[in-house]
Amino acid sequence: MTRQRIMSGMRPTGTLHLGNYFGALENWVKLQNEYECFFSIVDWHGLTTGYEDTSEFRDNIMEIAIDWLSAGLNPEKCTIFIQSNVKEIAELHLLLSMIVPLSWLERCPTYKEQLSQLTEKNITTYGFLGYPNLMAADILIHKGNFVPVGEDQQPQLELAREIARRFNYIYGDTFPEPQGKMTKIKVLPGLDGRKMSKSYSNTIALSDSPDTIREKIRKMITDAEKIKKNDPGHPDICAVYAFHKVFSEETHQETYEVCKTGGIGCVQCKKTLAENVVRYMAPMYERRQKLIGNKKIILEVLIEGTRHAREVAKETIEEVREKMKLMELE
Predict the structure, then answer these.
(1) Same structural domain for residues 155 and 212?
(2) In principle, which of 163, 171, 252, 290 could form an S-S bond with 136, CB 3.0–4.6 Å?
(3) How many domains does the chain have?
């Protein structure tokens, strides 16, 4: 029996961090055992906001591929590919743009939010306005049944469903309507208590060595009211304890109680956490060390994955062209 398909992707913006891992990658690693998964490095999407400087694009693509493989994605279980090398996505994006009303794109909440937030960038472009249509093409070209998404991505996914419905209505049943695959994710704050983000320099990267992890955790901001070792702490507002809940699953409740009563100091608390994080990330770090410097292996994964992704995409685009009665010359 054919397995249902999962489709998802990430922009190549550089080395990934623990927020990316728990926000998506951890889930992807599990899904590859249950579904036929297509995971795309969506470099065209990266151009929608980063078209002015592409100097690090190629390096970033290699970095994200290493991060994915280090995190546990297995090219024998899933398809890992580069979006811009599957030209059929661009053709489907063009064809879908012929039937998508402009108002559908303009009402997308993320479009409005990013226009107001990224004021330093000139993103009043056709490409940025049409990125939800490109996202729909990414999903529909491989006839994805499910897309792992967070709450903030629901509007774009609903638009992809509307586009699929509109195409099916006009030209006949072609695309499944992709459904969101909501899973419970572990949310980590940044090392300073804010959202974990490279722009805040408060991340633990998947590429960080054990010693780097220890040093970063040593400098973590803790409860401002717990000045002395024996002062009662407030773990509910402490980023260190938020990490303990993820990396110290068997002992975090004990840590909570001891902190509340002043039975442990922040220095020791962070040392314990650091060792737990290092232990958790050890398999990723070991896989990374085998991949670093072996560009040939990474390229082979991307080439083979992209080849398979194109095979599936070609079947879809041939069906689309036939449904739209476009002339195909031999």
Answers:
(1) no
(2) 163
(3) 2
